[in-house]
Amino acid sequence: MNILLIDGHPDEGRYVSHLLDIYENALPAGSEIERVAVRDLEFTPILRHGYRKRTDWEPDILMIAQKLDACDHVVFAFPMWWGAEPAELKGLLDRLFLPGFTFAYHENDTWWDKNMVGRSADVIITMDTPPWYHRLAHGNAIIHRWKKQMLEFCGMKPVRILPLGQVKFGGAEKHAHKWQARIEKLARTIRQARPEKKELRLDRFLNR
Asked: What is the distance between the alpha carbons of residues 208 and 193, in angstroms, rounded to a whole number?
């Protein structure tokens, strides 16, 4: 299985990277693993023209697009800041998840093709907000957006999201063993809803 790990923290040596290490070490033997840290990529995070015209990809965007296209399973890990992912990661998503590549709008109706069918995803989110409070006070907004408006929108399924908090005030130390067990379980139980439907989409997107 080809697995892509994406570290979304803009700083190195942080807790998110440690959690991604746990995930990587628990993957089944024989897994083909690609790991990318967004902080190491060189690209402009602004989708300058929206979808009106294509913004040329920098080499690092092309590189991660190739890895995403090839993967069977993708993992994102990042901290939640102000209810969202860090800006660099959001910029990567804006530049990478484009119509014609990860999805395709229909010309004559409001529906779309989910071009990432056959792939699955896990998302690990650290937060200073306790997950129960985030659910009650904010309706799990970031979880619903990543799951319904992004990854499942593009066809990935299942999409499993693991919110971990409260990290501060000793929460990370207090819950270390429990969180490690949950992450290891995710890594051991990867599956795709419809693996036979996976298609490579990048060459078609680049050459249209």
From this structure: 29
- Tell me the per-residue pLDDT of 19-40, one tens digit each, with 9 for 90 and over: 999 999 999 999 999 999 999 9
Number of Cβ within 10 Å of residue 132's Cβ equals: 11
148: how many CB neighbours lie within 10 A of its CB?
Answer: 11
Which residues are 80's β-sheet partners? none
Q: Check the CA dihedral 57-62-34-190 and report its sign.
A: positive
**Residues whose CB falls within 8 Å of the CB of residue 50, separated by 6 or more in sequence, listed in order:** none
- Position 133 scores a pLDDT of 84
Q: Which residue, among 92, 150, 158, has the nearest Cα to 119 in the 3D structure?
A: 158
Amino acid sitting at position 50: G
